[in-house]
């Protein structure tokens, strides 16, 4: 490696020409204002701050990243490209502070670029960010964006007294003479480059497993970040658009290594994920299809626990898009699902419990005796009485899926609730109190009882508006179907008993409905 240096202005010009670029496997710009100002102060004082590592190649990469908030221009094909492997935060800071040519992309944070030199500062670091970067005292502050802009520099110092102008002259002279140390190497073997980057960053705390894995599995034809982005776009049409990279990584790890801990990937050969990615995708999509068909889960928002998708991905991962599922396997998976949800199995057990289930699901997948789902779970009516309806909780999501198993009917219109519509939204607006909240508050009932699971059902907005704050006896007799059999059918589909509602007996209603819900939960858990 030949070591050399850049003057700041030359560095800026090469970036503006597109000769220095950022590979896609780099992270974005993450430095905060304080760190940028300290770095600029180090350059100003001549303190050492490490060299920039550049990889020179004649072949541009298929995918690249912006330099912070700036989209870089295409490079001249006659010149080689220098990709930043180490020092992206430093280069972005220098460019953002001193350049005057490129405009940032829309909706990008650029406050960190408005750094000023406090001319007569007595602070250790004389560089400051001002609340108003347009209106400031020119006798006290000098914008660093003028350092390499001679016309604005001259204009800013023209009216200053000689002492202040000399201080700014000294500042400009220091930055114009400052050298940015550079290390550059040339190599056209992409795997070698990825290994260099991974070795440099393995010990850095600002890179997570996904960042390192993106590098380790990167090639000209395969970019893990791009693959995850495309996969997320495909999942959006399935209602699972909010699956993040962390959950996708767990799914990858489960499909390849039967573990939810993706950090183990770093010990595998670099091309493992590339070779298995189609298998992983098939596993995820087949798992989602299984969740839709058997549990009416049409959105990630209603999945009680993320590790359920992880375990199912491991089971369904296959080179084929369709996975043949036997009736026995289906029964075991369904039982495991409900037992896991009602016991909140993955909320406390962490990696160890999930990995145990992954080992058992592999046995099931291979046709061997499996203990998947063979753990104890106790369900009591108190589960529905003592738990508040809260959409983000495991218990509430499980409760909603239980309601869906009974194919509920709308209370007033008696029409069948379209589960795909209701459960795709995954928000509280589709669920309402059976004994209206306002009615119970007038009776001064306990809030804990008013908002417990046992007092909620699926209900259309129009039906809820019809019921308003009416007592159940009123809307049951005057707004529901007059046909007694039809009315009973509606209430049964919602786990309700007519007697307590006609009597407006809230406490007895809660007790009996909790028992009905509990019986259904036990049935589902077999």
Biggest sheet strand order reads 1-9-3-5-2-4
Tell me, rounded to a whole number, the average pLDDT.
88
For the largest beta-sheet, the strand count, sense and barrel status come to: 6 strands, mixed
Q: How many structural domains are formed by the residues?
A: 3
Defining traits:
3 domains; three-stranded antiparallel sheet; 526 residues; alpha+beta; 24 helices; single chain
What do these coordinates show?
This protein is of the alpha+beta class. 49% of the residues lie in helices and 9% in strands. Strands 1-9-3-5-2-4 form a six-stranded mixed beta sheet. A three-stranded antiparallel beta sheet has the order 7-6-8, covered by helices on one side. A two-stranded antiparallel ribbon has the order 10-11. β6 and β7 (127-129) form a beta hairpin. The longest helix has 24 residues, at 272-295.
Quick summary:
This is DUF262 domain-containing protein. InterPro entries: GmrSD_N. The protein has 526 residues and is of the alpha+beta class.
Secondary structure layout plus pairing:
Blueprint: E1 2-7, H1 8-16, E2 20-23, H2 33-45, E3 52-57, E4 64-65, E5 81-86, H3 88-98, E6 115-118, E7 127-129, E8 141-143, H4 150-158, H5 162-177, E9 179-186, H6 190-201, H7 209-216, H8 224-236, H9 245-257, H10 272-295, H11 306-316, H12 327-343, H13 345-348, H14 350-365, H15 382-385, H16 394-405, H17 419-425, E10 431-433, H18 437-442, H19 447-450, E11 456-458, H20 461-467, H21 472-478, H22 484-493, H23 498-502, H24 506-525
Parallel strand pairs: 2-5, 3-9
Antiparallel strand pairs: 1-9, 2-4, 3-5, 6-7, 6-8, 10-11
Helix pairs in contact: 1-3, 9-10, 9-11, 10-11, 11-14
Protein name: DUF262 domain-containing protein
InterPro entries: GmrSD_N
Domain GmrSD restriction endonucleases N-terminal: 8-214
